[in-house]
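#lab-general

N.A. 3:47 PM
ok so I finally got the sequence cleaned up, no stray characters, all 433 residues accounted for. can someone with queue access submit it? mine expired

B.Y. 3:52 PM
send it over

N.A. 3:53 PM
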Amino acid sequence: MDPRALLIESFAAAVAAADPARVLAGHLPDHGEIAGFRRTLVVGAGKAAASMAAALEAHWPADASLEGLVVTRYGHGMDCRRIEVIEAGHPVPDSAGEEAARAILANCSQLGADDLLVVLVSGGASSLLALPVDTVPMGDLKALTQALLASGAPIQDMNVVRKHLSKIQGGRLAQATRARVLALVISDVAGDDVSAIGSGPCAPDPSTYEDALAVLRRYRVDPPPSIAEHLRRGAAGAIGETPKPGDAFFARVENRVIASAAASLAAAAQCFAAAGVRPVVLGDTITGEARDVAQVHAAIAAELDVRGERSFGPGFSRPLALISGGECTVTLAAASGGRGGRCCEFLLALAVAAPGQDWWALAADTDGIDGSETNAGAVLTPDAAQRARLKGVEASRCLENHDSYGFFESTGDLLVTGPTRTNVNDYRVLLLP
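B.Y. 4:20 PM
back already:
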């Protein structure tokens, strides 16, 4: 067994299971239904928006109406013939995304009851489809986004705030049109809650302005005055709430999850099983601080190593692969000065938590970007800490400074894939060969 090759193969299987080219076609209306609409408009946002648009075009009847506009992250675009693709800022929104969102909202509002609106939603849509309310300047939304990203708030909580500052998220896109709405969603959120994925542009929003204020208090985020005032007025009832479950217009709206972390973890598990390694899927909703999640994984692996079949039953002996998904967080110190993302931090914390173990591990974001750099994640080898130390790099110090990228750069174990143009969140596996 080549542990490194097997780990990378399993990640590729997880990503392939969420490839729009493989999963989207089966969720489109049939040709007869398509012919019944006067006009079909496709809009969307997210890291997978361009690949979703391309997959839709490839399976759409050539003689049927089709036009649209989607926005994706810089470097994630693809050539489409009938749907315009625009690139914009992520994870911090910018003016390109704002203008695209404004155009999308205007186009959707022109549709009639005999039209079809197809909305392509994937992770990253919250920032890429940023259209703040009139009283909140884009500069203030950028500042808030940066503060939330550094606070350690999970994506669901971040999106509660963003939905209440937007003209288009929190169900408002679906509210703005008279057309039938089909939202095809690639989930990057634990539990596949469509109201949280991309801040739910077509989904009922169960959260409130008061919930948004509570998130800011919980994570000690001090918002710009324009945002604080808008949320305060909303909580006081001076501004209308986001659309809620039960609102009548949702009767013509369908939100359909077409790819998820659970399906990707299952594909990775099949990869290990085919190689003679027993896969143990711990779950696709594992969240928390990356270093805390690493300690839990290390404890489970140690327990399996010590007790194995005696405690867990037949088959729970090496070789084993502990697989998990879900978005971890990294709460940054004010002046950490480090580089990297939650996947590499998870691996670095694993190296510090379990020195001397003969485990291998991989953690990577299925969108191909882990945090602030260009790598998807990294591979952790049993001798990584020793090899780094020979180059003057200490694992514990790097972890303290949140410099996981620097650590794995020193060992040569960064995993670089480029944009995958999909996103079902983080993939982690701890291999006991």
